[in-house]
Amino acid sequence: MTVNTGDVSKKTQKMSDLIYKYMRPEHLPHIWCPGCGNGIIMRDVAQAIENLGLSRNQTIIVSGIGCSSRAAGYMDFNTIHTTHGRALAFATGIKLANPELEVIVIAGDGDLAAIGGNHLIHAARRNIGLTVVCMNNNIYGMTGGQYSPTTPTGEFGTTAPYGNLDRSFDIAGLAYGAGASYAARGSAYHVQQTVSLIQEGIRNRGFSIIDVASVCPTYYGRKNKKGSAVDMLKWQRDNAVTPEQAAKMTPEELHGKLVIGLLHHTQYPEFTYQYNELIERLAKEREDHE
Ligand SMILES: Cc1ncc(C[n+]2csc(CCOP(=O)(O)OP(=O)(O)O)c2C)c(N)n1
Ligand code: SF4
To answer: Is residue 20 a part of any domain in this protein?
Structure first.
């Protein structure tokens, strides 16, 4: 890997600092296509960790299988690259055994909301202290462009050659409805905002979901004539609305818009805390009984 450490702007220098500090150079170059949004979002996660001053030993990155899930291989933390759809099951076990760890799950929309959908709603329902960053590219990237639970109705995929009939999931809304205490949406274009949304998600003590609109020019973009990766990023820039703006819009006006920002934040008891309290209570009851 070559990183320009010479005459570079402060911003680029900062990025190279992040690469040296948080990436595994021996696993680079990455496999992502030119223009893929996943690299930007992986960097956002690293920046959020840097801003919070988390130690690498205290942070664990968990992923399933998919283009997005490759991030766990590139990031130099305690990492586990698990099976498709099961990242949250592994992450739940890790968090229960080690509640002091910051457990961050990186997942694709298929991984998280199709095969892993049941794990998503139950992890959210427990409000277990995990932070989930969904690299949401509206399609199955790794396996060749099959439609996913977030492919918009009427759009195309390898398995929807005449247009997808299903309505798409709002992943952040789904997790919040199931019981998550923090739900936000960012985009590959809106870097600084997405970094701070991820940061706040990590700081939240319960289950946090940050649904980040990614860019897959290779499959979603090509099959839906969205133009180049730059065109897709510009679409995010030009169609983003805040939750406050969205609240004043009709469903017709909202159609095709990207609502980004903090969507919900509520305080509920966190699962591992409650679980440990239960263990302590039972131990005390046993002691009193003996
Ligand atoms: C149990 C199982 N079923 C199916 C697959 C094949 N598979 C690998 S990745 C993937 C979907 C990838 O889409 P997504 O999760 O949205 O991630 P992306 O590649 O778009 O980042 C599928 C179906 C698998 N690896 N394991
Ligand atoms: S197929 Fe799509 S999601 Fe996968 S690396 Fe290429 S651009 Fe990214």
So the answer is: no
- For residue 258 and ligand 1, the question of a CB distance below 6 A is answered with no
Domain residues for the domain of 239 are 34-289
Dist CA 102 CA 104 (whole Å): 6
Task: Please give the pLDDT value at position 17.
Answer: 83
- Which tokens is 222 given? 């090509």
- Ligand 2 geometric centre to CA of 202 (Å): 26
For residue 220, the ligand closest to its alpha carbon is 2
212 Cα–ligand 2 center, Å: 15
Return the DSSP state at 161: T
Contact 199, 44 (CB under 8 A): no
What is the H or E stretch that residue 183 is in? strand 182-187
Q: Is the CB of 65 under 6 A from ligand 1?
A: yes
Q: Is residue 23 part of a domain?
A: no
Ligand 2 neighbours, Cβ below 6 Å, are: 32-33, 36, 38, 67, 137, 141-142, 216-219
Read off the pLDDT of residues 147-193 as tens digits, 9 standing for 90 and up. Answer: 999 999 999 999 999 999 999 999 999 999 999 999 999 999 999 99
- Indicate the residue type of 150: T
Q: How many CA atoms lie within 13 A of 140 on its CB side?
A: 19
What percentage of residues in the chain have a pLDDT greater than 90? 92
In a domain, 1, yes or no: no
Predicted confidence (pLDDT) per residue in 75-127, tens digit:
999 999 999 999 999 999 999 999 999 999 999 999 999 999 999 999 999 99
CATH number at residue 252: 3.40.50.970
Average pLDDT over residues 267-288: 96
Please give the distance, rounded to the nearest whole angstrom, from the Cα atom of residue 65 to the centre of ligand 1.
6
**Among 156, 194, 171, residue whose Cα is nearest residue 42:** 194
